[in-house]
Amino acid sequence: MFIATISPRSTGKTTIMAWLLHALHERGYAVTGFDADESEQLYRWWEASPDGSYPFELHRLANGRFHEEAPRLLPDGHIGGVDCGHLENHAGIGWSVLRIADLAIVACAATNSDVERMEELPMDHFIDQVIPKRADKKRPNTWVLLCRVQPGSTVQPKGIRKGLLDDGWNVFTTMIPSIQLYASTAEGVPIKAAGSAFDELVTEMEHRGLISK
User: Fold this and answer.
1) d(C-alpha 19, C-alpha 13), whole Å
2) What angle, 0 to 180 degrees and rounded to 10, lies between the N-to-C axes of helices 112-120 and 155-166?
């Protein structure tokens, strides 16, 4: 299966996918990474990783033929984690990724401006446009992940989550806090996901039946 992080603009998608791949691996899932962002940031992190970190394969594949090329690179039984470029500037690649994504995680900062950007694209219409091109002719399973949540902030994130739910979005209860641990993710920086918010996210994904071994 393929899990892709998407958003209209830069909202920490690369950080989310890097940590999610590690969290899945540490929980016993076989994973393969895909960098479908022309910035190639995730690939640079993987390439510069210290010994023992990023213990999985990662492919650069930022083109409009992702839906044709990626399945051939994903080993049987693996979860393919895809870091997708922001959709406002890379629509063609985004649609190609969504043609085969089993789960699309919409990264949305817990701010009104990021919710407005989702509405302006609009995100739901962008996703729906790929339906005729998908093998099952259905919308990919789509969940919003609130990120960059300020520590100690409860009222605004809860209000934003309720508003998204009211608008018909699936929204994870797990939220990714804006803390130095995640902000420091970069080339040569090892990742240990145990006990992190991304470990919690994997647990929630399992409980919701989104992933299974």
Assistant:
1) 10
2) 20
Query: What pLDDT, on a 0 to 100 scale, did the predictor assign at position 178?
Result: 93
In three-state secondary structure terms, 84 is strand
Long-range interactions of 185-190: CB distance < 8 A, separation 24+: 185/15, 185/18, 185/19, 185/45, 186/45, 187/44, 187/45, 187/47, 187/48, 188/48, 188/49, 188/50, 189/45, 190/49, 190/50, 190/52, 190/53
Which DSSP helix (H) or strand (E) runs through 110? none
Contact 115, 78 (CB under 8 A): no
Whole-Å CA distances, 116 to 10, 16, 112, 124, 160: 14, 21, 6, 12, 11
Angle, CA of 159, 162 and 168, to the nearest 5°: 145
- Average pLDDT for residues 126-147, to the nearest whole number? 96
* DSSP per-residue codes, 48-66: TPPTTSS-S-EEE--STTH
Please determine, for residue 17, whether its predicted confidence score (pLDDT) is greater than 80: yes
Instruction: Answer yes or no: are the C-beta atoms of 213 and 28 closer than 8 Å.
Output: yes
